[in-house]
Design a protein that fits this description.
Rossmann fold, single chain, 595 residues, 41% helix, 19 helices
C-alpha cells in the first residue's frame, strides 16, 4: 500500500476552553477525491487550514510527502492583482493554463479583479486552484455562489483533474457525483468511510446506533459499580480502591460524552393564516435592464401551497423574477396580480440585513426588550437563540464574528419567528450543514403556506419543488412540473448545452445557431502541441522495444522480460494510433478555423 501524500496523526487543537480536535487522524491518498462532513462549528474549515499548513495544531503531526503541492480555496477567497489572469498566475501557474482554466469557468482573463460578484470570485479562485495542477486541492464550500451549471463545470474539472481532493460541502448531489471516500468529523475526532458520499447516511446511522449502544452499556456498568460502592468500600482491601478509581474514570467518561453530545436545532415554522387560493398570477411579463433582456413574455400562476423553484445561471434574473412576481419591481410589460391576505417572509442570499457590527441580540430584538414574539407567543431571547444552537454569550457578539453557516442560521431564526403564508428563500442552503438542511427540508415540506425557492442545490430542489421555473439568461423562461431533474428531462437543451444531456431534435431546431469559434481554445491548442511532441517521440520508443525483442535468446533466457516487452510494444502502438487520430481531428479543426 502506498503512503498517503498528506496526513494528520493524533492532532489536537483547542479554541480557548473548547477542544475542537482531540486525536484526529486523517490521510489523503494520491488522486483520491474525498469529502469532509460534520455539523457547523465542528471545525471543518479549521481542519482544512491545518492540512493546508496555514495554522499549526496544539499537538500531533502533519506529514507532507516531499514535493507535494497544495491548493486551498477557502469559503471567502480574496482575489489579488489587477486582472483575473494576475490572480490565477500568482501561485506559479503558466499563462496558458491560467487562461484555459478561466475560460473553462466562463471568465475573461483580462477582466479587472475589482467589483466582482460572489460567483465570479468563486470561479476565479477555483480557476487558480486547477491551473496550478497541485497534488492536493482543498475546497471549502466550493459550490457557494455557483449556479447549477457552474457546479456541473466544477464536477467536470474535478473528474479530469489528477489531483487528490478533500471537499467540505453541504451539496449532497455534488458530493455524490465526485467523491470516493468520506471523512466524518464528529465528537472531536475523524471517522473514515472508504466509499462515496452516496453511502454516507446509512453508514453514519449505523455508527450512531453503535455509539448509542456503547453509551447504554456504560450507563449499566456505572449503575452496577455504584451499587457495589453503596455496600461499603472503605473497609475493603487496597484493590477496591482501584475499583473506586475506575468508577471515577467511568463517570468522567460519561461527563465527556454528554458534553460532546450534539445540540439539536429546534426550528419551527408556521403559516400566518390562509391566503387566497391565488397567490400570484402573471401574464405576458417582460423585464430588461438596458440591452440585457431577463424576461420575455412569461406567464405563470402560483396557487396556495405551491412550492416553486427558480433556477438558471448567475445573472439570468432569478431574483429579479421573484421580485417582479411579488410586486417589488414593476414589469416592463404584462400584468401581475397578487392574491389576498398575503404575508411574505423573505430571506435574501446577500444577508444584506445583517450589519457586521450588530449583535445577535440586536438582530433578534431590533426594538429591544428580552422576549421574541415567536409565531404569536413570547419567548425569552436566550431560550429562542438556543433553539438555533446559539449560546447566551454569543448574543453579545457582533455578527461579523459568525461563520457563514451561523449567519444563515441567524437569518432563519429571525425569519421563522414571524408567521407568513408566503416564504421566499433566496439561496437558503449556503453554508448550512447537512443536518440543518435536512431539518429545514422537513419543516418546509410540512409548511402549509406557499414557498418560492431560488437555489443551486439540486437535491434540495428535487426534494421540495412542485414546479421549476428555468431562466436561460437570454429572456426565455419555462415552467415545468417537478424538480431539477424533471426540468432537464422535459426541456433538453434549454441551457444551450451547458448541462450534460443530449438535446432533442426539436430543441436543436429552435435554438439559435452557435457562434463559430474564431480559433482553437487554449486547452485544444496546448493538447495539439502535446500530441505533436508525443508522435515525434514514439518512433524511437518503438524502435528501442523492437530492438530488445530482436535478441534471439531473450525468450529462452528471460521469458518474463520478453512478455513485458511484448505488452509494452502493443501498448505503445495503441497509444501512437490514438494520438495520431486525436491530432488529425484537432488539426482539421484548426485548418477549418483558418488558424
Amino acid at each position: 500500500m502506498r503512503a498517503p501524500i498528506l496526513a494528520l496523526k493524533d492532532v489536537r487543537l483547542a479554541d480557548g476552553p473548547l477542544m475542537l480536535f482531540d486525536g484526529v487522524d486523517l490521510a489523503i491518498d494520491a488522486r483520491v477525491r474525498a469529502c469532509l462532513v460534520g455539523r457547523n462549528g465542528a471545525g471543518k474549515s479549521t481542519l482544512l487550514r491545518i492540512l493546508a499548513g496555514q495554522i499549526e495544531a496544539d499537538g500531533g503531526e502533519r506529514n507532507l510527502t516531499t514535493g507535494t503541492t497544495i491548493a486551498f480555496v477557502p469559503q471567502e477567497p480574496e482575489i489579488i492583482g489587477a486582472t483575473l489572469l494576475d490572480h490565477v498566475t500568482a501561485g506559479g501557474a503558466p499563462d496558458y493554463r491560467a487562461e484555459s482554466a478561466l475560460s473553462d469557468f466562463g471568465l475573461d482573463p483580462a477582466k479587472p479583479a475589482t467589483g466582482l460578484s460572489g460567483g465570479e470570485i468563486r470561479h476565479t479562485a477555483l480557476a487558480r486552484a486547477f491551473a496550478e495542477e497541485p497534488d492536493v486541492i482543498l475546497l471549502d464550500e466550493p459550490t457557494n455562489h455557483l449556479d447549477i451549471l457552474a457546479i456541473e463545470t466544477l464536477e467536470a474539472e474535478l473528474a479530469q483533474s489528477k489531483s487528490a481532493a478533500l471537499i467540505v460541502s453541504h451539496d449532497r448531489a455534488f458530493l455524490e457525483r465526485v467523491t470516493k471516500r468520506c471523512f466524518w468529523l464528529e465528537y472531536r475526532q475523524v471517522k473514515r468511510l472508504d466509499d462515496g458520499f452516496a453511502a454516507f447516511d446509512e453508514w453514519s446511522d449505523r455508527m450512531t446506533a453503535a455509539e448509542a449502544e456503547e453509551a447504554r452499556r456504560l450507563d449499566r456498568y456505572i449503575e452496577r459499580e455504584q451499587h457495589w460502592m453503596a455496600r461499603g468500600v472503605t473497609g475493603r482491601r487496597a484493590r477496591n480502591e482501584g475499583r473506586r478509581r475506575r468508577l471515577d474514570s467511568l463517570r468522567q467518561d460519561k461527563v465527556d460524552r454528554l458534553k460532546d453530545t450534539r445540540s439539536e436545532l429546534n426550528m419551527g415554522i408556521a403559516s400566518s393564516g390562509v391566503s387566497g387560493k391565488r397567490v400570484v398570477e402573471a401574464k405576458g411579463i417582460s423585464k430588461a435592464f438596458g440591452a440585457k433582456v431577463l424576461l420575455s413574455n412569461f406567464s405563470t400562476r402560483i396557487l396556495r401551497g405551491d412550492r416553486v423553484a427558480v433556477v438558471g445561471p448567475n445573472g439570468a434574473g432569478k431574483t429579479t423574477l421573484v421580485k417582479v412576481l411579488l410586486g417589488e419591481i414593476a414589469a416592463d410589460s404584462g400584468e401581475v396580480k397578487l392574491g389576498t391576505n398575503l404575508e411574505v417572509n423573505y430571506i435574501d442570499q446577500a444577508r444584506a440585513t445583517l450589519k457586521p457590527d450588530m449583535t445577535l441580540r440586536d438582530v433578534l430584538l431590533p426594538l429591544g426588550g428580552d422576549h421574541v414574539l415567536v409565531r404569536g407567543e413570547p419567548r425569552h431571547v436566550i431560550s429562542y437563540a438556543k433553539d438555533f444552537l446559539f449560546t447566551e454569550a454569543q448574543l453579545r457578539q457582533p455578527v461579523k464574528s459568525l461563520s457563514g453557516g451561523e449567519r444563515n442560521r441567524l437569518l432563519l431564526a429571525r425569519a421563522l419567528a414571524n408567521p407568513a403564508n408566503v416564504m421566499v428563500l433566496d439561496e437558503p442552503t449556503n453554508d448550512l450543514d447537512m443536518d440543518t438542511l435536512d431539518l429545514l427540508e422537513d419543516l418546509l415540506a410540512d409548511y402549509e403556506g406557499t414557498l418560492i425557492l431560488v437555489s443551486h442545490d439540486r437535491d434540495f430542489i428535487d426534494r421540495l419543488a412542485t414546479s421549476t421555473i428555468g431562466l436561460d439568461g437570454t429572456g426565455r423562461a419555462v415552467e415545468t412540473p417537478g424538480g431539477w431533474q424533471d426540468f432537464l428531462s422535459q426541456n433538453p437543451g434549454f441551457f444551450g448545452g451547458r448541462v450534460a444531456r443530449e438535446p432533442s431534435r426539436a430543441a436543436v431546431a429552435k435554438a439559435p445557431p452557435p457562434k463559430p469559434a474564431a480559433k482553437l481554445t487554449y486547452k485544444d491548442q496546448r493538447r495539439l502541441e502535446e500530441l505533436e511532441a508525443l508522435i515525434a517521440a514514439m518512433p524511437a520508443k518503438l524502435a528501442a522495444i523492437e530492438a530488445a525483442m530482436a535478441d534471439p535468446g531473450l525468450y529462452a533466457r528471460d521469458p518474463a522480460a520478453f512478455d513485458r516487452h511484448s505488452r509494452a510494444l502493443a501498448a505503445a502502438r495503441v497509444q501512437l494510433a490514438a494520438a495520431e487520430e486525436e491530432w488529425l481531428a484537432l488539426e482539421e479543426r484548426r485548418e477549418a478555423l483558418g488558424k
